Every structure is written in structure tokens, then in C-alpha cells.
Amino acid sequence: MSSLLEVRGVGKQYGSVIALRDVSTVVNAGEVTCVLGDNGAGKSTLIKILAGLHQHDTGEFLVEGEPVRLSSPREALDRGIATVYQDLAVVPLMSVWRNFFLGSEPTKGFGPFRMLDRRAGRDTTKRALAEMGIDLRDVEQPVGTLSGGERQCVAIARAVHFGAKVLILDEPTAALGVKQAGVVLKYVAQARDRGLGVVLITHNPHHAYPVGNRFLLLKRGRSLGSFDKKGISLEELTRQMAGGAELEALQHELRGAAS
């Protein structure tokens, strides 16, 4: 069976700046592929290619085994690829259920008598959130009153409800405290267990390792390697992320200077 998404030797260049070079990884159903790296590592460029915002210059991008060049986020969505960005596209003063259906509102009636079906919207939102184990007090409350973690969870539930096969999460835990980050990771695991392929973008190996099945490490647009969970420990992942070899060389150099 082919993977849901696969990139093979993908590269992207903006003028003379090489943003991504020779990056390969796969995203399988029921698995989380974590993309790790510091600022400027190429994570955002990879997301934009997967989400249909930009096209790759070199290499291959395959969706369910078929080579593609996505021309827009709409085309990515039509192929079941949903992206939840760090700066969630929500309307803070609008209710949770209205944000849940934003752009796809349920209606009743026909022709010029068609109107918004509020009850169906509220009931469907409540049910979809409950299926993901999310218990909100009131789906009529403004989404801006939710915590950052709760908003991320609503966005995840929305993507699952609207039939996403692949869920791309851009730094979902970056601005959250320990407890809220844990809540979001729980729902990432739930999406994985429902058979979605999840791409988790993060710079925190301690968030990636508990839910991840595969880890792609990026640095300055290049891949440092793609590892299965059984092939790398949290300690080694953290060391690679921190530039372990460079730190060791620096320590050696500092010791030499001090003696």
C-alpha cells in the first residue's frame, strides 16, 4: 500500500536563496511524521509545498502514489490535505460553531428562502468535538474566549470532520504551557488513531517524541536524516536537534583555550 504523502529529494529555491534541498520523507495513515528544526531550518517551506501554497522546484511530491504539483491550498484540501497554521485562522468574536463551519455553513430551505441552519450547526459541532473527546461548555461562546490549546483542538476536530486524510500542524504547541501542550498532543494522537496521517511541525523534541512514528530533522534547508522511532532515542533526537557534534567541537575548543 502506498503512503498518503511522500516527498523524494524535494528542493525549493527563491532567487539565489536555497530554502530546501534534497529532502525526503513519508506520511502514512495512522502515523505521525514529525518535522523538527530551528528557525530557518526549512520547516515553513516544506509546509507550503505540502499545503499547495508553493510548488517544489526539484524532486518528487506524491499523494497516494501519484506525482503531483499542487497549485493551491484548495487543491490540497480537495485531495484530503488540511493544514492548521500556528496563527489559527479564526474570527475571535464569532462563536465556536460558526468558526467550525466557516465557509461551509449548513443551510435549510431552498433558493431565495435558504437560510443558516443554526441548530444543525451547533449540534454537528458539539457531536464532532465530543467524538474527538473535546468537551466544551458551550459552542455558542466566542472562540476568542477559549485557551490556545482549546482553539488548536477545535481546528484539529474541524479538519477531521471535513474528511482530511492528512493533517499538517504548524507548531501547534509553540505558544502553550506544559498542560495545554499536553492536551493538544493528546488530540494529535487521537487523530493518528483514527487513521489520519499527521505531519507535526515543531522545534521541541520533547513534544514530538511521545506521539511521533517518524522524525525528519532539518537544518538550514537540508535533511539531517529521517528516522523511525525504533531507530532513534529521545536523547539522540535532542542531541541532533541541539547540534550535538557542533557543541562537542565547541566544548573541546573551549577546553583547549582554557588550558
From TrEMBL:
Short name of one Pfam family: ABC_tran
Domain ABC transporter: 5-245
GO molecular function, one term: ATP binding
Keywords: ATP-binding, Nucleotide-binding, Sugar transport, Transport
PANTHER family: CARBOHYDRATE TRANSPORT ATP-BINDING PROTEIN MG119-RELATED, SUGAR ABC TRANSPORTER ATP-BINDING PROTEIN
Protein name: Simple sugar transport system ATP-binding protein
Organism encoding this protein: Kutzneria buriramensis
Lineage: Bacteria, Bacillati, Actinomycetota, Actinomycetes, Pseudonocardiales
